[in-house]
């Protein structure tokens, strides 16, 4: 009965020319057990509800590096030498196979835990997989970014596209049948801009593109995450920091278990224990993680471009120089501060940019609305309770993607990507 209702809905949309409705997943039938979006974001999925993935030993993979910005070897201090070449990971099938590029989220390295999970999922399904760092990660900024001032999505996509072309050229014997593209969080926004760029450059002709939990309005998402740092947390005083509070809870948790076991199931199990974090503490933890990413961006962009806002222009930085004082200064600058002091001035100087609202429209999904409405190869999977979404964002996704939007009721920000229902849906989308 449900199948025929869905079929009638699809046919009705086609015949009447009206937008097709998004696939809204019912909370009761979905089965994801974590109803708190902060907890879902941090702890993700209970281990027994995750898909079966190949072990690292069963994956033919290696890390590679490319010399994309050779001038950085002379421009950057000597203790930055490990990131003057762009590094990436390739998991290779035997013989011909489709290849999928994976773009990491805000500040994330190519081998971040979410990218690793997605790699194993798609490799197990028969894909070659290339893992790329986020354009907002310090390693990508140093090794692959032309202007090292991330935040202009079209520029970030251009840098990614050049990197993808270089990766392909670095493996001439790799047999590829089709190209696919995906990214999570900010990486999903970048994937949308890369896909649009490919429509004109035609290097890959991506067959399908999947956006996982993308920000809709980039400024709204950034503001949401920045506000989490300001959460009032019980138990924190002038003598007890947030980190000491969390460390104390972890210490008591391991003492009660009788052993220390750090693995990907730790946070879920920890949240089921008496030491679990409160909503305010989880909000602070998520916000603090984002603040560290913002500080990385502000510090690295300032250093590479020698703006002198955080690190004095002529300050001697050598192998043994402590960067802690400068990073502490960078921590005082949230993403809004980075935009005001570095991104917007660069945008105005290089592109004759205008107001903040004009910038927001250019760098968000709004700037691609017409393309996204008409490109049937692009789909979105998102969560109704995602902490990065703001008023009107879900409405924009519905109006823009129609039935190419799958909206899950739970999962927080990317917390349900490793839930079996979601992983099956991802693979089905790419299989067509």
TrEMBL record:
InterPro entries: AB_hydrolase_fold, MlaA. The keyword tRNA processing does not apply. The keyword Signal applies. Keywords: Signal. Residues 1-22 form the signal peptide. This is Serine/threonine protein kinase.
């Amino acid at each position: 009965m449900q199948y025929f209702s869905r079929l009638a809905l699809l046919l009705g949309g086609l015949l009447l020319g009206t937008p097709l409705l998004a696939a809204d997943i019912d909370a009761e039938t979905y089965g994801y057990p974590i109803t708190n979006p902060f907890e879902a974001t941090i702890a993700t999925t209970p281990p027994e509800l995750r898909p079966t993935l190949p072990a690292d030993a069963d994956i033919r993979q290696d890390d590679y590096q490319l010399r994309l910005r050779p001038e950085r070897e002379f421009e950057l201090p000597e203790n930055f030498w490990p990131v003057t070449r762009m590094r990436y990971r390739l998991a290779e099938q035997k013989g011909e196979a489709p290849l999928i590029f994976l773009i990491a989220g805000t500040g994330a390295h190519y081998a971040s835990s979410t990218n690793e999970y997605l790699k194993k999922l798609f490799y197990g399904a028969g894909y070659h997989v290339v893992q790329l760092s986020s354009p907002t990660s310090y390693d990508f900024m140093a090794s692959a970014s032309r202007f090292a001032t991330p935040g202009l999505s079209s520029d970030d996509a251009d840098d990614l596209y050049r990197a993808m072309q270089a990766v392909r050229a670095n493996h001439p014997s790799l047999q590829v049948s089709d190209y696919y593209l995906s990214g999570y969080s900010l990486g999903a926004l970048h994937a949308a801009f890369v896909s649009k760029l490919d429509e004109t450059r035609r290097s890959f002709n991506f067959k399908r593109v999947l956006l996982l939990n993308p920000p809709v309005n980039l400024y709204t998402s950034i503001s949401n995450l920045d506000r989490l740092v300001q959460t009032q947390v019980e138990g924190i005083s002038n003598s007890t920091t947030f980190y000491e509070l969390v460390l104390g809870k972890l210490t008591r948790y391991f003492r009660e278990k009788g052993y220390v076991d750090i693995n990907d199931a730790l946070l879920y199990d920890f949240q089921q224990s008496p030491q679990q974090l409160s909503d305010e503490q989880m909000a602070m933890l998520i916000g603090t993680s984002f603040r560290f990413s913002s500080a990385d961006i502000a510090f690295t962009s300032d250093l590479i471009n020698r703006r002198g806002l955080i690190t004095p222009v002529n300050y001697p930085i050598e192998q043994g120089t402590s960067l802690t004082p400068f990073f502490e200064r960078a921590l005082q600058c949230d993403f809004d501060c980075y935009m005001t002091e570095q991104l917007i001035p660069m945008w105005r100087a290089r592109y004759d940019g205008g107001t903040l609202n004009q910038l927001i429209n250019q760098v968000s999904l709004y700037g691609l609305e017409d393309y996204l409405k008409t490109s049937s190869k692009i789909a979105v999977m998102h969560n109704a309770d995602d902490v990065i979404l703001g008023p009107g964002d879900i409405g924009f996704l519905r109006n823009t993607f129609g039935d190419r939007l799958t909206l899950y009721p739970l999962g927080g920000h990317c917390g349900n990507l490793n839930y079996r229902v979601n992983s099956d849906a991802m693979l089905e989308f790419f299989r067509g």
